[in-house]
What does this fold into?
Amino acid sequence: MPKRTTDELSDLKAFVSVAQAGGFREAARLLQLSPSGLSDAVRRLENHLGVRLLHRSTRSVKPTEQGAQLLERITPAFTELDLALKTVTSTRDKPAGNLRLNVPVNATRLFLAPLLTRFLQRYPDITVEVVAESGVVDILAAGCDAGIRYDERLDQDTIAIPIGPRQQRFATAAAPVLLERFGRPQHPDDLLKMPCLRGRFAKGNLERWTYQRGDEVCHIDPHGPLIYSGGSAVDMGVAMAAEGVGVIYLFEAWLAPWFESGQLEPVLEPWWQSFNGPFLYYSGRKLVPPPLRAFIDFVKEE
It folds into this structure.
C-alpha cells in the first residue's frame, strides 16, 4: 500500500477517535497516544482535504458540518474493518469480547434476564451490554451489534430470528376498587367512560388500545388522569392502576404478578389480542463478530 494512503488512513482514524471522544486528550488516553500527535494528524488531514473538520475550543471539540458528513460516511467502514480483524483473530471454540444489544424495556422485564444468564454461564469470556429503550433505533448508528424488536418494526435489510415467547397478549386490568366504582366493562367502548392510564411511545404518539373478539376488531383511544413514558415509567403506571387511579393496558406477562396478588383484576379478557413474539435482528450488510455469532447460535438452540 502506498505510504500516502497509509498516512491518510491513520489520519482518518485519528479524526474519528477525536470526534467520538469529544476531545484530543480523551482520545489520546483511549488510544494510548499523545494529544499533540493526534492534533498533528487531524491538522494534516484538514490540510490535505482543504476543509476544517473540527471546531476546537478550550472546553470542547466538535465536528464542523463537513466533519460530521465525513464522520457519518467513514465510521461504518472503520467498524467493518475492526470486525473483520476480530473475526480473523478470534476462535469460534471460545468466543470472547463485547456484545452490545439494543432491546425494548419489556424484553428486559419479561424474558431476557434468564436467557442472558444461561448464555454468560456458557461463554464467560463475553461481556454483554444491554441498552434498553422503547423507540426504534438504527443499531449500527447506535453502536450496537444486534437488537430485539417485533416484526412490524424490523427493517427489510435485517436478518431476524425468533427470541423469547412466540405468542403474547396485551391485557387490560383495573383495581377492584375502580371496578366497584365504575362497573365491569363488557365491551371495549365502555372504557371510554372510565379513567384510563396511557403510555406514550418514544416518538411521542400515544398508544392505541386494540381489541379483537372473533371478527370484530376495536381500536380505542381512551382518556384519563395519567400519561406515562412507555419505557421507563411503566412500573409507575402499573402501581397507580393498582391504587385505583385508572385502567391500564399492558403485556399480560407484565401484569401477571398483579393478577396473582389480587391487586389488579383482568378486564375484557375475551377481547385480549394475541400477537407474535419478538425477534433478534442484526444487519445483513456487515460481518458478524464472534460474540454475536455465539449469541445467535445460542438463541437458535433455545
